[in-house]
């Protein structure tokens, strides 16, 4: 019985994974992603005559480490990837609910929970692969535009890949769970997409709010709703679990787009020090996002088992 369940679950997984591999969908995502990533990488990299990120390999590794983190938590495994997961939820389960094709699928010897979980795992795993491509493309652009020795990749990009991929998987799980719950409750592609897009939208919107409205941000406790801040906590916890202590170059890369760290005022610019901005304990952010994801999946399962198709 368990073998049959696993086979059916894998069949749903494989079907969904194949649906997500549509070249039109991937092209619609990658073209703007590549353009914006190239634009940001060119803006960050020293392109003026005489400018350089450092003459030694250690200096280049440090710069690439900081910049790669900066772009990863904003582009590589963050906002675009989260938005893509929202779209994936809409074109899979929400589309089948809206068009009525889900009735045909459920008429076969397959259980509803297998359909939902198979779709969930397929979206999360596919998004993680897309995240890996995003990270590698980002690294290549930074190395090429900044004219960095390729040997610097090993001590910077490769050391950060495991934490980034786990972070991508976590973020994809949060948005996918939300999107699938919306899909079974609304049975509408547009509502599913817009509802799930709230998460990456808040991730983006709170960055300028935190930077330019610091007093308002703290006085009104807006950090409680700051998605980028909570996801930044998740990244730090994952990084600590995989790599141990968080070095200064990692902390510096997290300052702008997550607000998890801030530079100490009396620190030496040549060797800046950073302190954690713990409006909320890091572990609490991870726990709340995890519980939110589990609750969304459970709500989706409950509704999916009882809804009419």
From TrEMBL:
A molecular function (GO) term: ABC-type transporter activity
Pfam families named in the record: ABC2_membrane_2
Keywords: Membrane, Transmembrane, Transmembrane helix
Transmembrane segments: 25-48, 68-94, 115-143, 163-185, 192-213, 284-304
Annotated coiled-coil segments of the chain: none
GO cellular component: plasma membrane
Top-level taxon: Archaea
Name of the featured protein: ABC transporter permease
Organism (species): Natrarchaeobius chitinivorans
């Amino acid at each position: 019985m368990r073998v049959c369940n696993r086979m059916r679950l894998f069949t749903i997984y494989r079907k969904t994974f194949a649906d997500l591999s549509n070249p039109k969908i991937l092209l619609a995502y990658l073209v703007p992603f590549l353009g914006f990533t190239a634009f940001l990488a060119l803006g960050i990299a020293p392109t003026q005559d005489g400018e350089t990120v450092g003459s030694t390999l250690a200096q280049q590794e440090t710069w690439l480490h900081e910049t790669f983190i900066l772009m990863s938590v904003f582009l590589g495994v963050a906002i675009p990837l989260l938005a893509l997961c929202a779209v994936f939820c809409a074109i899979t389960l929400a589309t089948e609910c809206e068009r009525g094709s889900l009735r045909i699928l459920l008429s076969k010897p397959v259980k509803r929970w297998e359909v939902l979980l198979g779709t969930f795992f397929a979206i999360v795993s596919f998004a993680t692969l897309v995240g890996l491509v995003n990270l590698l493309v980002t690294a290549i652009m930074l190395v090429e535009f900044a004219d960095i020795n390729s040997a610097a990749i090993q001590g910077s990009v490769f050391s950060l890949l495991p934490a980034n991929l786990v972070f991508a998987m976590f973020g994809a799980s949060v948005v996918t769970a939300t999107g699938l719950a919306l899909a079974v409750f609304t049975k509408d592609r547009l509502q599913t997409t817009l509802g799930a897009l709230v998460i990456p939208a808040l991730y983006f919107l709170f960055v300028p709010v935190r930077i330019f409205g610091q007093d308002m941000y703290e006085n009104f406790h807006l950090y409680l709703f700051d998605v980028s801040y909570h996801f930044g906590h998740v990244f730090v916890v994952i990084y600590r679990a995989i790599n141990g202590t968080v070095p200064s170059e990692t902390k510096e890369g997290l300052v702008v787009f997550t607000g998890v760290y801030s530079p100490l005022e009396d620190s030496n610019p040549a060797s800046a020090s950073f302190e954690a901005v713990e409006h909320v304990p890091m572990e609490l952010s991870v726990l709340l996002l995890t519980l939110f994801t589990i609750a969304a999946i459970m709500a989706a399962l409950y509704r999916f088992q009882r809804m009419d198709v």
